[in-house]
Amino acid sequence: MSIEQSLLTQVIEAARAAQLDQGHLAQAAGVAPETISRAKKRGTIDLSTLQALAQAAGLTLSLSSGVTPDPAGPMAPMAPIRRSSLADPSRGLAWSNAAISDEALVRNALKKGSFNLVLEAVLEHGLPFVQRQWALMRADADVGLSSRALVDISRKLTNIERGLSHAAA
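Structure (tokenized):
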């Protein structure tokens, strides 16, 4: 998933949380609804369009250095932000995108469908977080998962949930 796709996905999710569907989001941003559909299919979007959509969804686009300042002062070494183990290039979930969000990593793990990746996502990010991402993916018709994949991943998540409940007992 490209950075544009990841950002657009986050904007669309924020709009949904604000009870805006894609058509109303596009209208509020002053763009044609087809613009969002095309951007999702192409995986690219003009930065000014993305900014307008983000503002319409109540978000602000910004860049950060990827490090957190140390309260000890400006000359203290900066501590790196904790990265998900799913971002490891050997997993094939983040490709070359070092700034990929945890949401996108978990969704990519779910798309791959490997039990080990799904389990790792649950163990690292928590079952409720992974289930929320899965619910959002199932609600998005453009995700492109087959009906078999939908059933298979749902079954894996149920089995992981049962296993965690059994282990906690």
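The mean pLDDT is 81. The first helix runs from residue 3 to 17.
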